[in-house]
């Protein structure tokens, strides 16, 4: 059993990446297109370009972290040095000056610069922090525990932070919907900055006792040369694992679906369901609290009954089935008006189911990545945890490019124009928004379900691998 203090201090570090995701999944597309007037296609393209850089930087940071040797370990120097600039990046992202807003080219450049800034320093914190999980414990179930804590804080922050903002920063005032008031967004940037500084600092300081493990861990990467060719060799080596290649394919498909959901959700809630800021905050926050709590409390019993691979399969099946009931009911006219309490209640249930299965899926698949680092050490004699997690993050981010690109193009195609307000959007545009959501989500989830079924791993396999590694270390010690 991992100590509670370790789970808490490590777990809160997951919120750092979540704050970035919350900014992009909830506010950026709405802010820059519907509030500032930047084209949906341009905004989606810029976000996609920044995601490409985000993905490229992941393996670079991962390999550099694996190779680092210092008195502060391999992970903590990167984490500590990321905190200050990352927080400042959120202020810049949500505070374009008026002269920039008045020129669409400058506004596009402003979004690109601060997107690259935020994503770079988020990477230099998140990748080493992820790698730290495989070093804190090698226990099959313990890794799920600690990554469950990280994912729990990540999802809670990704939802509760924007929900809090929708309630306190963006409420309707004097008949004006706060989501369309540009003067409110700098406050959200300041809030994001403050939360990043506090939580990242607590996680970095709270896990410092694991620095010794980072310095002395056997089987570390060869640090004799750190060149672009060496970094590429590290990347190629991680891809030699068949299970890992399959996991990459699964993650591309599953993350593509998530990218579409995260891009279009706020627009669907705002225009299709005509929810107010307060109602959106409710269906974001409450189901997430319950879903994350249920997932964390049931992962232990489920993990003793099913393998991690089976849990991923079951949660994908649950996500697919959950996509097939709520929106068709509304499209066929079988639900009351959007203002009816029943509609909000059904969306609440929809989000609760979604968050539960999504949490179980991500925790289980991420824990599989940690297990595969043991296979890698057995095969190659190297510990490259950051390399593995960075590759998964790399392909995940490349897959999420589909979200803003798809979302931006969809807005232009269906005719959701700047200045439109809930209640004034043509019915065919609203239906087009829902069709775009379904077509971007269900097919990738089906592909992910097929690929994950081909991954071969189990608790017995992982423990056998670890036993062989331990025996090899003992032989080396006896020969010294």
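^ Assign residues to that structure.
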């Amino acid at each position: 059993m991992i100590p509670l203090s370790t789970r808490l201090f490590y777990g809160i570090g997951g919120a750092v990446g979540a704050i970035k995701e919350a900014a992009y999944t909830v506010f950026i597309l709405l802010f820059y297109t519907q509030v500032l007037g930047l084209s949906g296609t341009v905004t989606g393209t810029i976000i996609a370009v920044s995601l490409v850089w985000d993905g490229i930087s992941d393996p670079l940071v991962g390999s550099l972290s694996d190779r680092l040797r210092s008195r502060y370990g391999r992970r903590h120097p990167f984490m500590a040095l990321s905190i200050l600039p990352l927080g400042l990046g959120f202020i810049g992202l949500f505070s374009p000056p008026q002269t920039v807003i008045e020129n669409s080219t400058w506004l596009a450049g402003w979004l690109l610069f601060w997107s690259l800034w935020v994503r770079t320093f988020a990477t230099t914190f998140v990748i080493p922090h992820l790698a730290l999980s495989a070093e804190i414990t090698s226990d099959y179930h313990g890794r799920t525990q600690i990554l469950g804590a990280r994912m729990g804080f990540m999802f809670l922050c990704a939802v509760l932070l924007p929900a809090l903002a929708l309630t306190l920063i963006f409420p309707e005032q004097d008949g004006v919907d706060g989501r369309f008031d540009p003067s409110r967004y700098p406050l959200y940037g300041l809030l994001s900055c403050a939360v990043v500084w506090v939580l990242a600092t607590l996680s970095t300081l709270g896990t410092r006792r694991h620095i010794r493990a980072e310095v002395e861990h056997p089987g570390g990467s060869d640090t004799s040369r750190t060149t672009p060719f060496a970094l590429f060799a590290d990347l190629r080596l991680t891809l030699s694992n068949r299970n890992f290649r399959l996991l990459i394919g699964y993650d591309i498909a599953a993350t593509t679906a998530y990218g579409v959901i995260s891009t279009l959700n706020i627009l669907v809630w705002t225009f299709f369901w005509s929810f107010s800021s307060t109602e959106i905050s409710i269906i974001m926050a409450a189901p997430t609290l319950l879903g994350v709590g249920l997932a964390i409390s049931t992962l232990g019993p489920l993990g003793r009954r099913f393998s991690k691979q089976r849990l991923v399969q079951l949660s994908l099946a649950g996500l697919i089935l959950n996509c097939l009931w709520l929106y068709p009911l509304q499209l066929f006219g079988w639900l009351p008006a959007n203002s009816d309490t029943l509609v909000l209640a059904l969306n609440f249930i929809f989000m609760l189911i979604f968050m539960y299965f999504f949490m179980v899926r991500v925790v289980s698949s991420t824990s599989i990545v940690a297990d595969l680092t043991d296979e890698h050490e057995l095969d190659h004699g190297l510990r490259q945890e950051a390399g593995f997690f960075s590759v998964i993050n790399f392909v995940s981010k490349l897959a999420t490019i589909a979200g803003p690109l798809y979302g931006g193009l969809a807005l232009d195609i269906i005719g959701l124009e700047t200045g439109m307000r809930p209640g004034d959007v043509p019915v065919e545009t609203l239906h087009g928004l829902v069709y775009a959501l379904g077509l971007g989500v269900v097919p990738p989830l089906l592909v992910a379900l097929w690929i994950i079924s081909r991954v071969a791993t189990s608790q017995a396999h992982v423990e056998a691998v670890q036993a062989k590694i331990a025996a090899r270390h003992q032989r080396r010690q006896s020969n010294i």
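Residues 213-221 have pLDDT under 50 and may be disordered.
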